[in-house]
Amino acid sequence: MNEKDTAPAAGPPHFIRNIIREDLKTNKYGGRVHTRFPPEPNGYLHIGHAKSICLNFGLAEEFGGLCNLRYDDTNPTKEEVEYVDAIEADVRWLGFDWDDRKFYASDYFDQLYQFAVQLIKKGKAYVCDLSPDDIREYRGTLTQPGKNSPYRDRSVEENLDLFERMRAGKFAEGSRVLRAKIDMAAPNLNMRDPAIYRVKKVHHHRTGDKWCIYPMYDFAHGISDSIEGITHSICTLEFEDHRPLYDWFLDQLEIYHPQQIEFARLNLSYTVLSKRKLLQLVREGRVSGWDDPRMPTLAGFRRRGYTPEAIRTFAEIIGVAKRDSVVDIALLEHCLREDLNKRANRVMAVLRPLKVVIENYPDDLVEEMDAINNPEDPAQGKRKVPFSKTIYIEKDDFREMPPRHYHRLAPGQEVRLRYAYFITCTDVIKDKNSGEVVELRCTYDPASRGGWAPDGRKVKGTIHWVSVKHAVPATVRLYDQLFSKDDPNDEEEGKTFLDYLNPNSLQELKNCQLEASLSKAKVGVPYQFERLGYFCVDSIDSKPSDFIFNRTVALRDTWAKIEKKTQD
RNA sequence: UGGGGCGUCGUCAAGUGGUAAGACACGGGAUUUUGGUUCCCGCAUGCGGAGGUUCGAAUCCUCCCGCCCCAGCCA
In 10 A of CB A403, how many CB atoms? Predict the structure, then answer.
C-alpha cells in the first residue's frame, strides 16, 4: 500500500474524486494525476473560475499530481495580454502555483498545423469553400440531417495545397476553412464536419503575425491536453456534447488520450457570472472596473477584502456535481465571516457619528482604556484606546423613543461604553429647525471604569464609541448586492439583467470617525469594526490624506432581524 | 419534435439494494463588556410522478413529467 492509499480524504466525496480514485486503483495512467486550468484570456477570472481552479489545482495537490496553467488563446480577436497578467495574479492570490508549467495553446500552433496536415493525409479533413452562411445552411437543423459540402471529396493533394495556401495568406477571411470529415447526418451537430482551422488575418498577442489561420477550440484543446500528458481534462457541462469530437481527434491522430470530465458550473444568487455580462458592466461603466468591489471577479473580491482562504473553503463546501444549481450567496458570506472572525483584529469605528458630551467627566482628562485586539486570538494582545469627555457614538445606538427590547441608549437609559464606562442619557439636543437629534448629554459612573459596575448592576447594552479629539476621519463604502433580483439571469419579457441592477449597491459615508489606532491601518489587513462588520483599506482609492475603507461584509445582525420582524 | 445531460429539505449536497449524512438558511434556547463568536435543540415517514421486481428500493426495470445544453469560421 502506498502513501496515496493511506492519505486521508482531503474533502467530501464527489464524482470526479471518485473517478480519480478509481483510475489510481486500476493504474489507468500509471498512477499519474495531471490536470490543467485552461482560461481564455478574454476577461477577468470570477468566482466561477475559482471553483474550477480549486478543483483542478486542488485535485492535483490532493493526489500528488500536477496542474498546468494553460491559456486557451486560439482566438486572437478576443484575447489580450492584460487579461493574461490578471489571470496569473488571481490564480496566485488564491494560493496555487504552476511552477514552470505555464503554457499557451499558441505554443502548439506548429504541432497543431502538422496534426491538421496529418488528418488531411488520412482523408479525414478537407478544405471547404462554402461561405459561413452556406455552412450553416448545409449543417441542417436539430431535427434534420445536414448535407455534404460539394468540396468534401477533394483529393488529398488538393487539400494539402489549399491548406498550405490558407496558411500562406492567399485566401480572404471567411472564404475557406479546414473541416474535419466526419458525418453530416450525425445527430450530434458537433460531429457534422466541424471547422478546425479558419482564416483570421489578425495579430496574435504571442505569435504576432506568424499565423493568419488559427485552430478552433475543439481541435486545439484535446491535442494540447494530449501534448501535456493531461490525465483528467475537467470542463463544464456545455462541453459534454463536444466530448465525442474531443475523442475523435485523438483517436484519428492516434496520440495519447486523456479523458474529458464535465461538471456543472457555479451560479450564485444575486449575481451574474458570464464574461459577456461582466464585460458589459465594465464597458458601460455600471461599475468602476473589473476590480470594482461589487464585482464577482477575484480582483473585485480581493479589493473588497475577501480572503483566498474563504473562497477556497467555499469552493470545497459547495461540492462538485452535474446538476445545474444556484448557490446562495449567504454561503459565501458565511465562509468569509468564519475566516475573518479568526483573523481580523477588533477596533472601534463610528460610521454615522452622534456627539455625546459626558457632563460630569473632567474637561481635559484623557484616559487610556484597555481593549482586547481579538477575543478569538489571545496572541494578538491588547491595545490602549483614548477616552475623553466628548465622544461619538453611532446614531443608530440612540433612540428617543426606544422600541421594545431596544438595549441601547435612550433618554434616562444607561448603557456601557465598550471598555470604558456606564453612561446615562440625561438630555437630548435637537436642531431647532429640523428637529434632528444633534447631540446627547450624559453622565457617567466613575466607579464603572473598564465597563464593570462594582455594585454588580447589569446594563442591557454595550455600544462602541470614539473620542472626538482622537478620532481619525475616513470615508467608508458600504456595499450591497449588485443586483436586487435573486436570479438576474432570469430576464422577464422586455427586460435585461441591467434592469435588475441594485441602485443602492454602493453607499459612501463621508464623515466616519475611527479609533486612533486606525491611523496606521494598512492595505491588505482585515479589521473588524466592532458591532458593524469587517472592513479593509481600499487598495486603489485610499490615500493617507483621505482614508477610504470598504466594508467587506457586515456582521450578522440579529437585532436588525428582530426589529424588521416586529415592523412587518 | 434529433442528440447530450440532470431531477434527494428553502439553497447546495452525500448516498450506488438494507431502511434519508453534512453545510447554509430558518426557528427555539444557553453563554457573552461585539444583539458578534461559541454551544445545545428543532428542521425530508421522504428522494420529480405512476406502476413493477424484491423479505427490503432514493438506489434495479417500465412508462410518464419537468429543467438545462447544442444549429459560431466563440471558448
Answer: 11
Under DSSP, the state recorded for A398 is B
CA–C1' span, A483 to B27, in Å? 28
Share above pLDDT 90 across residues of chain A, in percent, rounded to a whole number = 95
Distance CA A420, CA A398 (A): 18
How far is residue A461's CA from residue A49's CA, in Å, rounded to a whole number? 44
CA distance A233 to A221: 10
Residue A69, classed as helix, strand or coil, is: strand
- Nearest nucleotide to the CA of A174, by C1', is B73
Measured CA to C1', what is the nucleotide nearest A235? Answer: B75
pLDDT at A174: 97
- Let me know if A377 is exposed, middle or buried by CB neighbors in 10 A (0-12, 13-18, 19+): middle
Q: What is the pLDDT of residues A71-125, one digit of tens each?
A: 999 999 999 999 999 999 999 999 999 999 999 999 999 999 999 999 999 999 9
| Catalytic site positions of A | 40, 265, 275
**Mean pLDDT value of segment A354-362:** 98
Q: How far apart are the first and last CA of chain A?
A: 63
Lookup result for grid cell 427590547: A405
The amino acid that residue A299 corresponds to is A
ipTM of the complex: 0.97
Residue nearest to nucleotide B71 (CA to C1'): A141
pLDDT score of A6 more than 80: no
B67 C1': nearest CA residue: A324
